[in-house]
Amino acid sequence: MPLLEIKNLTKKYNADTLALSDVNLTINEGEFVSVIGPSGAGKSTLLRCINRMIEASSGYILFDGVNVSTLSKNELRNLRTKIGMIFQHYNLVDRLSVIENILHGRLGYKNTFEGIFGIYNEEEKKSAFKIIEILGLKEQVYKRCDQLSGGQKQRVGIGRALIQKPRLMLCDEPIASLDPNASKIIMDHLRNISSKMGITCLVNLHQVNVALKYSDRIIGINSSKVVFDGAPSEMTSDIVYSIYGSEAEELDIDIGGRNAS
Amino acid sequence: MQMEETLNTAWEEPSNDISNDERPMSIRKISKASIVMNATLLFLAIVSIYAFFTFDYKNVNLIEAFSSTFYNLKIVFLEPHLKHFSVHETIWQLIVTLGLTVLTTLIGSVIALFFGLFAAQNLSTKLASNIIKAVVAFIRAVPTVLWVLIFAVAAGLGSVAAVIGITFHTIGYLIKAFSESFEELDKGVIEALKGSGANWWQIVFQAVIPSCASYLISWTFLRFEINFTYAILMGAAAGAGGIGFDLYMAGGHYFDLREVGFITYIILAVALVLEVISTRMKVKLSGFD
Questions:
Q1: If chain B, 289 residues long, is cut into consecutive pieces of 10 residues, what is the mean pLDDT of each piece?
Q2: In chain B, whose CA is at the least distance from the CA of A77?
Q3: How far is A152 from chain B (nearest CA, A)?
Q4: With contacts defined as CB-CB under 8 Å, which chain A residues touch B192?
Q5: A153 CB contacts (<8 Å, ≥6 apart)?
Q6: Which residues pair with A222 in a beta bridge?
């Protein structure tokens, strides 16, 4: 059974701006899926519709057999605990330490009182430390997040999502603000999350070559429509051209030795 | 002349209305605003000069007046002493004034924190935010002294009216300051926690307040300093007691300038200490610890 089914998803911001039109997708458990497309194509909107940070205009989303769009406030909160999210700008609380930021991922499981005062049980703290170790942040545990580098911040972001014990990770341009070295570390971690922990990853990317290297499947979006959905091996320069339009000529994208231009 | 030629050829169409004008060139553009501004300044200058010629000086000798003012200032600041109050008593009154300050700031800041959350547009609904902001604008528009006098109608002149009145204005002031700090918060942080299933109160206490803590504290401390001034003032104006009342008695009843000087020095010392504390706090909060 697929983990995520998107049917006829449409999002209009207003009468003129159509962010998504009639998107249909099925994503299976454990898949690593990249979403590529030019800026403003609707990639971020697609991701945010899944956990209802943005309300879709029409169509529906089934997550693990549950219709997301009809959930009540509490059920939605419950759903969001199962979906981790990481961001281009990390979105950490800079003034708090690494461990505090990672434990924020548990807030969705807590009642209001425990959440307000940040009361976490031993098990949660232990798993936080384990995640920190996996992500290689052991020396930064008690450091404030504004003292970390971009790559380290993004790893904290991944940690915060992982501690939710999610079934799906939504990654909104995770490496768009990072240097190539840090980008590789982050993508390797995401790949491991998918292949070793079996967590499904849906990653928005700007870099076609990164998408080709890491994903099981690539979805291309152009002006609010899905124009490609297939394995990286099926990707050709014509398809890149259809995704990026005339911009592709300047992209000079390397597809397994061939140039897209 | 060569330059002019090159300029002319470069732009093809020489702007003869500017470069060929015989009048001296002005680097400032004359606009309506600058005309109004200059006219106003000229008018004020004329009125001032006229006033100095037509003042009713009675029989005041200007030199004598200046010298006796300096004489009084000399007495106040160079010969301070205590006569009607003991040192012990003065310090106690100082503590009373500080007590008023702490009480008003503490109650005010706690209440303002909660209303500030609902007044911030990124954390609240537009309606609630606008209502609170409108009420708060009204509270701030009325001066603190007036609030104390208004509450004195119900509570009688004294420390109760002073505390309520100063607190009231403190709330108004801090709600504005706090809510604007909250509004500056990066909305991504809120989005991230919301996306992981955290609820509103959890987001507020785990992300919003920690992120804004340094602003909140520095605003509160600024208000603490303001409230210290008001607490002194209210001691005299509203009979709230404390060092302000002593100052009023020394100056207005005993006409003892030396005692006024002593009390002024004490107040100055406290103000200096507060300044030092706030500066250190800001450094500590904004820097890395």
A1: 54 55 71 90 95 83 90 90 86 93 96 96 94 95 91 88 94 96 92 93 94 91 93 87 90 89 92 89 69
A2: B197
A3: 17
A4: 85, 87, 91-92, 104, 157, 160
A5: A90, A92, A145
A6: A225
Q: 3-class SS at B51?
A: helix
Angle at A147 between CA B281 and CA B282, to 5 degrees: 10
Domain ranges of chain A: 1-82+167-261, 93-165
Is the Cβ of B199 closer than 8 Å to some Cβ of chain A?
A: yes
The CA angle A54-B212-A81, to the nearest 5 degrees, is 35
Distances (CA, A) of B162 to A181, B190, B247: 62, 39, 17
CA quadruple A243, A10, A33, A163: dihedral sign = positive
Q: Which amino acid would we find at residue A211? A: A
Q: Do B191 and A160 touch (CB under 8 A)?
A: no
Q: For A1-82+167-261, which CATH superfamily applies?
A: P-loop containing nucleotide triphosphate hydrolases (3.40.50.300)
Min Cα distance A184 → chain B (Å) is 23
Give dist(CA B104, CA B100) in Å, integer.
6
Domains of chain B: which residue ranges? 10-54, 87-286
Please report the DSSP string for A80-129 in residue order: HHTEEEE-TT----TTSBHHHHHHGGGGGGS-HHHHHHT---HHHHHHHH
Q: Which fold has domain B87-286?
A: MetI-like fold (1.10.3720)
User: How far, in Å, CA of A247 to CA of A250, rounded?
Assistant: 6
Beta bridge partners of A205: A36
Tell me whether B189 touches chain A (CB under 8 Å): yes
pLDDT digit string, tens, across residues A216-225? 999 999 888 9
CB contact under 8 A, B199 and A81: no
Contact status, residue A30 vs residue A38, Cβ threshold 8 Å? no
CA dist B264 and B115 (Å) reads 37
Q: Residue type for B9, please?
A: T
- Whether residue B195 lies within 8 A of chain A, CB to CB, comes out as yes
- Please give the structure tokens belonging to residue A162: 């992982």
Contact A107 B196 (CB under 8 A): yes
